Amino acid sequence: MKLLITKFTMPFIMGAFMLLIAPASNAKNIATGNSPQAIYSLFVNLLKNTASGFGQANGIKFLVNSALRANGSGTNQIINTADNIYFVEKGKFLGIDGYKAITAADTITIAVADLTVGTNYKLQLVSTAFKIDGVTTMIIDRFAKTTTELTGDTTTLSFTPTADASTYGSRFALAFKVNALPIRLISGSTERLNNGQVKVNWNTLGEVDLASYTLESSSNGANFVAVTTVDSKNAVSANYSFTDTKATNAIKYYRIKATNIDGSITYSKVLFVAPISAAISVYPNPLVGNNLHISTGNLIAGKYSVAVYNLSGKKVYTTTIDGKSSAYNLNIGKQTAGQYSLVISSDAKVVYSTSLQVK
Fold first, then answer.
1. Residue 356's closest CA among 299, 345, 295, 343?
2. For 45-63, how does the pLDDT look when each residue is reduced to its tens digit (9 = 90+)?
3. Do 274 and 193 meet the contact criterion of CB atoms below 8 Å apart?
4. Which of 68, 124, 136 has the alpha carbon at shortest distance from 96?
5. Per-residue pLDDT tens over the stretch 299-354
6. Segments making up each domain of the chain, as ranges
């Protein structure tokens, strides 16, 4: 998404300067001088401790140029006899800076000069109007070696300059991190089909400059592999669907990876689908005679082993069923009266087990 700076007229403000961003979709408004639909602004104030408490630093002035241009062509720094603050952008000292789209990590130095040594100052950042989806904004303190994320409306850092310029100077910087795609929503759902396959649906809102979606699957929710990749429709809202024909009747996890045209990616929440629970019953139990009946429901077609074990763990009967029928009649032969276990398994995984009494 390209961003352009709009034209503004603003009152003369003491003790603050601002970073200003507006969407390129408002280009028509820019040309006509009309107000844009959305403006993102970040104010930076320098506060100084005086006899009456902290207040705007003396001599700091802020003026917005009505012909503000993007990225390093904002209003020049106002030179004062003391307490100067400004952006350093492309070798220019600016009291206000317009900025292009935030599409990659970037850093802008907030420089201060001519401060009073030994006096307490506060750098205050007001980010109420600087909430941009997918962008994390941080203030870096190079002297204290700290990084603070701007999570609230106002963030304040206290400092006291000494004769060492590193205690103020270019000590502070704004840093931006792009941590999501320009897409507002990816919501998904899963559906286990009767044959054990899984249908994954996902809906999106606000696709912008997206290249593709990759459906990924996992058996443990941690290690994912790609199942398929589909092109993005780049629509205001869109629906997608894919059936995983290689899915087995086991726990399965899915997520959708969205890839932007610049290569950046973001992920949906992890989706979960449970295996189909087979409804199996064995009768008569207790068993009189040799004939045992097995009734099945929701059993996916496939090869299943049916085994009967005595109390010592010895297998006394085994056969296979195909899972295609809902009822099976088995002749397990004449067994000695006593307690047995009946186990139905598939690929060495137990599907069903029960105790079987033989009389």
1. 343
2. 888 887 776 766 543 333 3
3. no
4. 68
5. 777 888 999 998 888 899 999 998 888 899 999 999 999 989 899 988 777 778 88
6. 3-178, 185-273, 279-358
Q: How far is CA 159 from CA 88, 171, 321, in A?
A: 20, 10, 77
CATH 2.40.50.140 fits domain 185-273: no
Looking at the DSSP assignment, which residues form a beta bridge with residue 253?
Answer: 218, 272
The residues, ordered by sequence, that sit 6+ positions from 4 with a Cβ below 8 Å of its Cβ are 22, 23, 24, 26, 27, 30, 70
Asked if 185-273 and 279-358 have one fold, the answer is yes
Model pLDDT for residues 164-188, shown as the tens digit of each residue: 999 998 899 888 876 654 565 788 8
Quick one: what percent of the chain has pLDDT higher than 70? 75
Q: Which parts of the chain fold into alpha helices (H)? A: 27-32
Q: Which phi and psi (to 5°) does residue 285 adopt?
A: -145, 105
Fold entry, domain 279-358: Immunoglobulin-like (2.60.40)
DSSP string, 92-143: EEESEEE-----S-EEEEEEEESPPTT--EEEEEE-TT---TTEEEEEEETT
Torsion of CA 99, 104, 109, 110, to 10 degrees: 60
